[in-house]
Automatic annotation (TrEMBL):
Any GO MF annotation of the entry: pyridoxal phosphate binding
Cofactor: pyridoxal 5'-phosphate
GO biological process: L-serine biosynthetic process
Protein name in UniProt: Phosphoserine aminotransferase
HAMAP family to which the protein is assigned, alphabetical: SerC_aminotrans_5
GO CC annotations on file: chloroplast stroma
Organism encoding this protein: Daucus carota subsp. sativus
Pathway(s) the chain acts in: Amino-acid biosynthesis; L-serine biosynthesis; L-serine from 3-phospho-D-glycerate: step 2/3
Catalytic activity, reaction form: 4-(phosphooxy)-L-threonine + 2-oxoglutarate = (R)-3-hydroxy-2-oxo-4-phosphooxybutanoate + L-glutamate; O-phospho-L-serine + 2-oxoglutarate = 3-phosphooxypyruvate + L-glutamate
Matching InterPro entries: Aminotrans_V_dom (IPR000192), Aminotrans_V_PyrdxlP_BS (IPR020578), Pser_aminoTfrase (IPR022278), PyrdxlP-dep_Trfase (IPR015424), PyrdxlP-dep_Trfase_major (IPR015421), PyrdxlP-dep_Trfase_small (IPR015422)
A Pfam family reported for this protein in Swiss-Prot or TrEMBL: Aminotran_5
Length: 409
């Protein structure tokens, strides 16, 4: 059944259309050196769109894109596009307030937390966090489970004294430590984790508790933000780039406990000071207005699906189908990540015959499945299956993988 979106003004607008239309799929071309006839794929994408498995900027819900398209030229009765309107005008004020309210509802954000819509990507927050909650001689603890956690750790060294209390680098970032084995430092202002490592496909399924009084848990949730329920009260700060699950690139969302605001180092640039943005309701300077509007549409869509509990069920199902295909391939495909911490969002895998990986990516692209090449630092393949990736996309990828194995195994 089609869901109905509620406009920023509160009026009911056009029902959301289904994400993808199904039509009769075409055949995959057989490999020229192996004449075995390919199997028919049982699913396909819309005739004019691909299944985009990119890690970010990532696929957006088709119905959200169509809604944005219908309002691109003239937004409601404003006589202009969202891209043209003043960020201090009543129309955009309604947009950003509605986006924040919907996000608060999705994540059940407590009242003693501020929600900020910022710029600069999650990478900027690697510096902003220690600048805001540490003095230069303060320490902070880091659990590094992948490339992004490592970048955050290295950047923090410019503004405080970070401690690397655990790193998975020696095991090629394929696991998460047992929390009871961690030795946290007395007096550390925060414990930092990357909740989901986009490149390596490692995801925290539970979260460690900070061992010292006064310290807080800080999480980079860029690639699993709004993919499942999270108890926000366990964290001092949650931050995320929008371009994975909730919008286009250009928007960074920070959820911060209010008592942590207002303690920035004196040298903190004004644009990195949470107090400035909190006092100005994310409107200290011109924000990424259109990106925030798009995030608002995505939040409405997630609520229309029944909230993050329902969204998580869909994500578990999609990931399960793909991991089952990998594990059931008798070694033809391999996922290096420890099963208990495999990401629901980013699925890295390799081929037993690595020389076939380029052919796999090439053939998949012909079948309208794109951006499956793994990150340049690790190689192989990676399927990012964020909220907006429909079940049909995962089913088509799995059918292709089985067909490819039948022809090349």
């Amino acid at each position: 059944m089609a869901a109905t979106i509620i406009s920023m003004s509160g009026s009911t607008t056009t029902p959301l259309t289904p994400l993808f239309k199904t039509h009769i799929p075409r055949r995959i071309s057989a490999h020229p050196t192996n004449p075995a006839p390919p199997r028919r794929l049982s699913v396909s994408c819309s005739s004019d769109r691909v299944f985009n498995f990119a890690a970010g900027p990532a696929t957006l819900p088709e119905n959200v894109l169509k809604k944005a398209q219908s309002e691109l030229y003239v937004y409601q009765n404003s006589g202009m596009s969202v891209m043209e309107m003043s960020h201090r005008g009543k129309e955009f004020t309604a947009i950003i307030q509605k986006a924040e309210a919907d996000l608060r509802e999705l994540l059940a954000v407590p009242e003693n937390y501020s929600v900020l819509f910022l710029q600069g990507g999650a990478t900027t927050q690697f510096a902003a966090i220690p600048l805001n909650i540490c003095a230069p001689d303060d320490s902070a603890d880091f659990i590094v489970t992948g490339s992004w956690g490592d970048k955050a750790y290295k950047e923090a060294s410019k503004y405080c004294k970070p401690n690397l209390i655990w790193s998975g680098k020696s095991e090629k970032y394929t696991k998460i430590p047992a929390f009871g084995e961690l030795k946290q430092n007395v007096g550390a202002k925060y414990l930092h984790i990357c909740a989901n490592e986009t490149i390596h496909g490692v995801e925290f399924k539970d979260y460690p508790e900070v061992g010292n009084e006064g310290g807080v848990l800080v999480a980079d949730m860029s690639s699993n933000f709004c993919s499942k329920k999270v108890d926000v009260s366990k964290f001092g700060i949650i931050y995320a780039g929008a371009q994975k699950n909730v919008g286009p690139s250009g928007v960074t969302i920070v959820i911060i406990r209010k008592d942590l605001i207002g303690k920035a180092q004196g040298s903190t640039p004004v644009m990195l000071d949470y107090k400035i943005h909190d006092e100005n309701n994310s409107l200290y300077n011109t924000p990424p207005c259109y990106g925030i509007y798009m995030c608002g549409l995505v939040f409405e869509d997630l609520l229309a699906q029944g909230g993050l509990g329902e969204v998580e069920k869909k994500n578990v199902k999609k990931a399960g189908i793909l991991y089952d295909a990998i594990d059931g391939s008798k070694g033809f495909y391999r996922c290096p990540v420890e099963k208990s911490v495999r990401s629901l969002m980013n699925v890295p895998f390799t081929l037993e015959k690595s020389e076939l990986e380029a052919e796999f990516i090439k053939e998949a692209a012909k079948e309208k499945m794109v951006q499956l090449k793994g990150h340049r630092s690790v190689g192989g393949m990676r399927a990012s299956i964020y909220n907006a990736m429909p079940l049909a996309g995962v089913e088509k990828l799995v059918a292709f993988m089985k067909d490819f194995q039948a022809r090349h195994g």
